[in-house]
């Protein structure tokens, strides 16, 4: 125990003398340092490595430039290309082949659907499970039924202008209801119309009523809710039936930006 304290005291005494006396400093010998001259030299990678690095950098720059150009081009010119595509779709020459209402007014539902099939129309059944009557969508002749079914299932309002101009031109929806007698309707979008009157006249002519002596016009103009209309009667083998053509601006029914501002929504009814 005495040795421990003696040793401890000796260490303490040496510690107190270190700052004031050079005699008690420990000589540790010469200090050796690492030669760092090699680290100061510039690092020059081998030429093959340098060439490969430059090639990869060039490829990265090209890819990045293409993406950047595509993004900028899409912002600056995307709307112009979409407008050109919409115009092309509208004027691509696909026929509506509107059903002649007087030819179907006396037929039963099954016969109507079969007649559409015999005529070569591609139709998509819109009836819900357990519903009666007829509710079919005729699709354009230049699109597939599978593609159209996917598009229509999302709803017309979800379409952009390019999609709408492709799937609405040449299509119509035909319904038959027997709630109060027999009422038939066909509805479609006229994207090529210049105005509402033009759309009414086109529908009138498409039904073959312009030169039909059995057709009488009883009224036309603009009704109380703003629809442009023409209505009257027609004499057929099954008797006298009333008809009406109603037209309104398409953007009042569907909000699809990019379609012509003159596009019209058309409905033809016979009962």
* Secondary structure: number of strands: 8
Order of helices and strands: HHHHEEHHEEHEEEE
Percent range of helical residues: 25-40%
Domain module count: 2
Enumerate the strands of the largest sheet in spatial order, edge to edge or round the barrel: 1-2-3-4-8-7-6-5
Main beta sheet, described?
8 strands, antiparallel
Given as residue ranges, the uncertain stretches (5+ residues, pLDDT < 50) are 1-24
Percent strand: 15-25%
State the oligomer: single chain
Radius of gyration using CA atoms only: 42 Å
- Per the principal axes of the C-alpha atoms, what is the gross shape? elongated
Helical run tally: 7
Quick check: average pLDDT?
A: 83
Distance N terminus to C terminus?
Answer: 124 Å
SS-based class:
alpha+beta
Explain the overall architecture.
The chain has 271 residues and is α+β, with helices and mostly antiparallel strands. The chain has two domains: 44-89; 95-270, no CATH class. It has helices at residues 2-17, 37-40, 47-90, 109-118, 145-153, 161-167, 196-206; strands at residues 123-125, 134-138, 172-177, 183-190, 215-222, 228-236, 239-249, 264-270. It has an eight-stranded antiparallel sheet with strand order 1-2-3-4-8-7-6-5. The N and C termini lie far apart (124 Å). Residues 1-24 have low confidence and may be disordered. This is Teichoic acid transporter.
